[in-house]
Amino acid sequence: MRKRIANPKANIIKKGVLDMAKVSASVFTSHVPAIGAALDMGKSQEPYWQPLFKGYEFSKQWMKDNKPDAIFLVYNDHATAFSLEMIPTFAIGCAAEFKPADEGWGPRPVPMVYGHPELASHIAHSVIQQDFDLTIVNKMDVDHGLTVPLSLMCGEVDAWPCPVIPFAVNVVQYPVPSGNRCFQLGKAIGKAIRSFEQPLNVQIWGTGGMSHQLQGPRAGLINKEFDAKFLDLLINDPTSAAAIDHMEYVREAGSEGIELVMWLIARGAMSDVDGGPAAELIHRFYHVPASNTAVGHAILKNN
């Protein structure tokens, strides 16, 4: 009698896709440091700030109703964990915890950020095997780029609702990664998450932007038309959004507008970019100004 050879995938097939991790939604938001300061100093209801925070009221309730098991949060470090001596293009935090950073005026009074080392390690292994080079970080503090989005989406809480995997992208020191490179990386990250053999509900967040410039003759630049176009493309035609050249970001959205490439990582992780059903727009919001910055925000449900 011929001996039957075991199928190593049989257990996964038997368990079914519901026992695998999934990307349930992508969240996009600016991460302006002054927003964190307004929250921390109790100024969120002042006339200047109230319209901005009102735009996130829906999002905070949505977050409570759609609590994930983990958040993969794409942001850029602002010379806190990394300096000009060493700037990785893409860095994934694989530690069990990350302290809020002291950015010169003390750490923000927000909860400790707890990571998900098992999922982070799996993503790192999978993405590197898909030919993307990542820097593995086992100890780092996280600055406003990561904590402000958490505050906007979760409110003032004693603990963040779930583990967070920090993913830092260099958009500070040129050369920076292209939009298409980030978009393709997002696809690899989405594939990595969906291959994790635990039934986790994972959200992927892209942060930074929108149009703004903090220095030079164009300091204070805000381009509402470019921002609206980018949001339209991000939601409905992400491949075209990914094709925007980095010099167009600088010309149209200011020197710091390049942060928008990080939104493309989150968008690339959605199923529709690889032939799945169209993503569903849950919420869209735009407001100017917030400390000389245009604030954009959107939530997409992954179908």
Layout of strands and helices, then pairs:
Elements: H1 10-15, E1 22-29, H2 33-40, H3 50-54, H4 57-65, E2 70-75, E3 90-93, E4 97-98, E5 113-114, H5 117-129, E6 135-137, H6 144-154, E7 164-169, H7 179-194, E8 201-207, H8 224-236, H9 238-242, H10 246-253, H11 261-268, E9 280-287, E10 295-301
Parallel strand pairs: 1-8, 2-7, 2-8, 3-6
Antiparallel strand pairs: 1-10, 3-7, 4-5, 9-10
Helix pairs in contact: 2-6, 5-7, 7-11
Descriptive tags:
34% helix; Protocatechuate 4,5-dioxygenase, Chain B; 303 residues; disordered N terminus; alpha/beta; 10 strands; eight-stranded mixed beta sheet
Polypeptide structure, described:
The protein is α/β, with parallel strands linked by helices. It has one domain (16-223, 235-301): LigB-like (Protocatechuate 4,5-dioxygenase, Chain B), CATH 3.40.830. The chain contains eleven helices and ten strands. An eight-stranded mixed β-sheet has the order 6-3-7-2-8-1-10-9, sandwiched between helices. Helix 2 (33-40) packs across helix 6 (144-154), helix 5 (117-129) packs across helix 7 (179-194) and helix 7 packs parallel to helix 11. Residues 1-15 have low confidence and may be disordered.
Please give the alpha-carbon distance between the first and last residues. 46 Å
Strand elements, count:
10
Number of domain units: 1
CATH secondary-structure class: Alpha Beta
**Spatial sequence of strands, sheet with the most strands:** 6-3-7-2-8-1-10-9
Number of helices: 11
The fraction of residues assigned to DSSP E strands is 15-25%
Computed over alpha carbons, the radius of gyration is: 19 Å
Low-confidence residue ranges: 1-15
The rough form would be described as: globular
